Amino acid sequence: MDATTTRRRLHVFDLDGTLLHGTAAPVEISRRLGVEQEVLALERAFAAQELAPGEFAIRACELWAELTEHHVAAAFDGAPWLSGIREVWSEITARGDRCAVISLSPDFFVSRLLDWGAHATRASRWPKLPPLAPSGGGRYPSEPVDPSGILTPTAKVELARELCADFGVAPRDCVAYGDSRSDAELFAAVPVSVAVNADAHVRDLASHHYTGRDLREAYALVAGAGS
Question: Span 57-65, mean pLDDT?
Fold first, then answer.
């Protein structure tokens, strides 16, 4: 068998604006708490590079005093996900390839995608959620945000390389999917990238681009390459 037919690939997906259509995990969580507009303002400041990732997390946590596991579960279940995520990840697995999600968003939201078929998730370490209890587990956060645990765009590149090593994938066989400036460094570090509903800056950096609501269509742009 030709060696090119057996090379394993790693597909790395961004979350906010990519798997989630037109929104971000902190926004969806904030909607459940009635502070959506306040966090949207933080999102705009972050996009304009006026807030560092750690500062964004600190200020968002200040708005989430009532946060519980129930809010996160409701936000996850009610979020506007692209169609076909589980089907794409199932096909990737069937091919012998691997898929992972790397996101700057809270790990307690992102890790739920393991149940959908992601082989790994890497996300920012936000303060832990209060324990589930009939009387409530206390106000959030119970501990300060550790800025060192909040991912940066540069960290996405480092984590993608680590995942390639973990899964036995050559870096040349890593495919990245993203939508914004936070994905630009990763797009520059991999040979194949798909801009999904992306802004103009990242769209111009990508080797492929897709606009729509179905991940199966975005995946189809690269599914045959290298297989």
Answer: 95
pLDDT in tens, 104-139: 999 999 999 999 999 999 999 999 998 765 455 568
Q: How many residues does the chain have?
A: 227
Per-domain residue ranges for the chain? Answer: 3-21+82-220
Neighbours of 24 (CB within 10 A): 24
What does R_g of the chain's alpha carbons equal in angstroms?
Answer: 18
Contacts 24+ apart (CB under 8 A), 199-207: 202/178
Running DSSP on this structure, what letter comes out for residue 17?
I
Paired residues of 174 in beta bridges: 10
Backbone angles phi, psi at 175, to 5 degrees: -115, 130
| Statement: 3-21+82-220 belongs to CATH 3.40.50.1000 | yes
Alpha-carbon span 96 to 121, nearest angstrom: 18
Q: pTM for the whole thing?
A: 0.93
Cα separation, 106 vs 125, in Å, equals 6
Q: Which two tokens stand for residue 59?
A: 């200020």
- Sole residue written with tokens 């996405």: 156
